[in-house]
Amino acid sequence: MIEQNKAEFEKSNITYWRDKGYTGKGVNIVILDDNGLSYPRDNIIEPLIHLDRSIYDYNHKTRVTAMTREVLSNANIYAFNWFADYKDEIIDWIRTNKDMIDFINCSFNATQFSYDKLMELKDLDIPVFVAVGNYGKPYSNLTGTLPFVFGIGGWGEAQDRKAVMSNYGLNLNFMAYTGIYYHNSDNTKVVQFYGTSCSSPYAIACAGYYSEWFRDQYNRPMNTQECFEFLLKNVDDKDEIGRDDNSGYGLIKLPDKIPTLEKEIDTMEFKDIGNHWAKQEIEFITDKGLMQGYPDGTFQPDRALTRAEYATMKAKELGFVKKK
Question: What is the SS3 string spanning 152-168?
Fold first, then answer.
């Protein structure tokens, strides 16, 4: 951890989660940004780099990917040049890989054409975080008005208030810290990254620690509603109770302790198995800790079992891994 980020990491409970061994392992983040290069040391995956005819130098995407890697050291980060002429290929890649993607970040404003293309992500049910913009005005940039995204504003740690440059208003959902440090290309100094372009991926990086825990429990990414419920439960509400135009629902942070499902499993009554023919068997196997339900209180008894879920169940049954 870069020393200058210590206060933000501690207040976001990132330090606590890191001390417990969480690093974002297995979490998959898609970053849509400009044509900037990423630092080689950050191990950024660029699936469509061969299509890009306009890669030049370190740029905005460089800062977004470097800061994300500083906050969440072990995540898989996939970066794309959204402003190139192959948006359809990017959408197709996301659509093909939707079942493994945890989050998508968009730290940019959009033209109407770009807005319309981003609307194609709506039905994929992937949590999308966007920067609301840096004009200090009571509105969001066009990207932040997409009806299915989380609009993220910037929050200053030292002043403990909304950053002066951050937009606000009706499309602001949550706040996240801005001014996060990362190392430059040759690691000779640290550089600070300001603006809501920093806050949006920082919010994702925070959520990435919880996503690692969530994947361990459920063998899948969170959907948009589950992500929203997690954020809403863990924010530091800074202004009026509930959502307000100045800070949305509040400042994103992680829980101050690692969640546990043990008590929930013992007492859980799934709301979708009341008259199901396998109700008794479901209650038996969940009571033994071999399988679990979903955060919305359902078991989804007729959904097909994935190979990963079957492997997890058998490993617990045979005693190779700890039952949750």
Answer: EEEEECCCCEECCCCCC
Token output for 107: 């730290």
**Residue spans per domain, the chain:** 3-234, 262-318
| String of DSSP letters for 200-241 | HHHHHHHHHHHHHHHHHHHSS---HHHHHHHHHHH-B--SSS
pTM for this entry: 0.80
Contact 182, 69 (CB under 8 A): yes
For 3-234, the fitting CATH number among 3.40.50.200, 1.10.357.10, 3.40.50.2000, 3.40.50.300 is 3.40.50.200
pLDDT along the chain (324 residues), means of 10: 96 98 97 94 92 77 97 97 94 98 97 96 97 97 97 97 97 97 93 97 97 95 96 93 94 94 54 84 77 80 81 67 50
